[in-house]
Amino acid sequence: MTTFVNRLKRRLVVIAGLLTLAYLLLPVVVVAVFSFNKPKGRFNYEWQEFSTDAWKDPCGVSGLCGSLSLSLQIALWATLGATVLGTMIAFALVRYRFRARGVVNSLVFLPMAMPEVVMAASLLTLFLNMGVRLGFWTILIAHVMFCLSFVVVAVKARVMSMDPRLEQAAQDLYAGPVQTFLRVTLPIAAPGIAAGALLAFALSFDDFIITNFTSGSTVTFPMFVWGSAQRGTPVQINVVGTAMFVVAVLLVLVSMAVGNRRKRQKG
Amino acid sequence: MATVTQSPPPQPPPLMLARRAKPPRRLGRWTPYLLLLPGLLWLFVFFALPVIYQASTSVQTGSLEDGYEVTWHFATYWDALSAYWPQFVRSVLYAASATVLCLALGYPLAYLIAFRAGRWRNLIMILVIAPFFASFLIRTLAWKTILADSGPVVEILNTLHVLDVTSWLGWTAGDRVLATPLAVVCGLTYNFLPFMILPLYTSLERIDPRLHEAANDLYARPSTTFRRVTLPLSMPGVVSGTLLTFIPATGDYINADLLGSTDTRMIGNVIQTQFLRVLDYPTAAALSFILMAAILFAVTFYIRKSGTEDLL
């Protein structure tokens, strides 16, 4: 008995950790299971019977696939904008000493330290005051704004851990500034930039609060889900959620496999 | 006969040294500013300027039809605060409970990934991050199914008489979990848990495992090792994790809307309704300004107290 208790004690962290993991994954499992449901009525909250109808016809609900493609477009453009602007800021902050660094640092940090609803509300005040029409462009502007800081943090972390002697070595070998940047600096910083871009994409694609304030009558995918939660949720929403989860896991697994193979080839 | 040997003329320093003394690239002194300009301009126009605009909106009076004018009407702040202080208090309470729960749930998992997972480490890491990509609104809606009345969770809690206790505490109402504070806190905890786990993992992973061995060699019991070595060294992760959880949770209105009822409205719900439905811009601006000020104040205080200012 005591050995059992001792064993249990030693395993306590593992058990607690796995329980948390289950807590994190439970909703995903529920979403996946209910994507095979055939609901009675408008709401898909109760299990009725098994059916693959929704998987056969994911675009069967009007507006769903349109909102999905709009969200993808916005996320792609927002990622591009935030990654370019954020990488430039990150390089300037790590590589140069200049007077306004403190101010710049806090201007970059503040958007992350502020509840989204505050940013969203103030941005809406600006747009209303300027008489801008809300829609695609206002959403894009807002998304670039709040993704920017996250890119800066991701790229900064990578560039900071980079050995500056590598660039000096390139210059000693008579590489010009452009060549040094393209062949040495950029490849080393690439994982940080990629991480920042991925984060920006995920944040933009999934953002609801800021989009809610800046979209006017434009409907992105999260806005569509929000609206359907009030009117009645089609099963197709669960299909999209499950598919996104599966694609994310597959993408990560593939990128890891590729990384491992490269490592093995080098080693 | 001391012949003074002439010291050799000072040689020019070797090329390598001269290079090393200089910054890596010799570009103009304006380079950093040129790099910063576009991004900072964006942040200034679409982040800083709006906050200033909002400040001015909060002291305006007027109506939607006749237009608003700055009249330095500071009473809006007082009116907003006296009308909506319960929602403010509730937001802080819910967010604080969710943060504590996230820490309690997230620490073991972060610890597991950092020290015990072995070859499963990458897989568990993927399983923590991947739900991020399945729209969080959909996942929050899934909690409606999980916590549904007469669903398995509610039934188990009922047979264990847990709901009696939580009802008595005011966390749940009768036989229901949905539309109660418990459901909202559960949703908040769920949604912000990854923001706690990732910084915790980062700081735990940096700890040198030899420190644990050393503590063990010095006859520290596992609990002592944890208390005296692991926990103090993971404090930066705890601090940034709690901030990353608490700040967004305070302003959130999605969980309170989807899983709660009118009795669980948080300040985010009020700001959203005032801005998008009631269209009372001065009150909404004042509320969001109070929230911003309160959070900035609390965060500054917390960071000072926990002594990790280099965190930012």
Describe the structure.
The complex is a heterodimer of chains A (267) and B (312). Chain A is mainly alpha-helical. Helices cover 77% and strands 0% of the residues of chain A. Chain A is built from 11 helices and no strands. Chain A has helices at residues 2-34, 53-56, 64-95, 101-109, 116-130, 136-160, 164-172, 177-206, 209-214, 221-231, 235-266. In chain A, α3 (64-95) crosses α10. The longest helix of chain A has 33 residues, at 2-34. Chain A is globular. Chain B is mainly α and 312 residues long. Chain B has 14 helices and 2 strands; from the N terminus they run ααββαααααααααααα. Chain B has helices spanning 15-21, 31-58, 75-116, 121-129, 136-146, 152-159, 162-169, 181-205, 209-217, 222-233, 235-251, 254-259, 267-278, 281-306, and strands at residues 60-63, 67-70. A two-stranded antiparallel ribbon of chain B has the order 1-2. Chain B is globular and about 75 Å long. The termini of chain B are far apart. Residues 12-25 of chain B have low confidence and may be disordered. At the A-B interface, α1, α3, α4, α5 and α6 of A face α1, α2, α3, α4 and α5 of B.
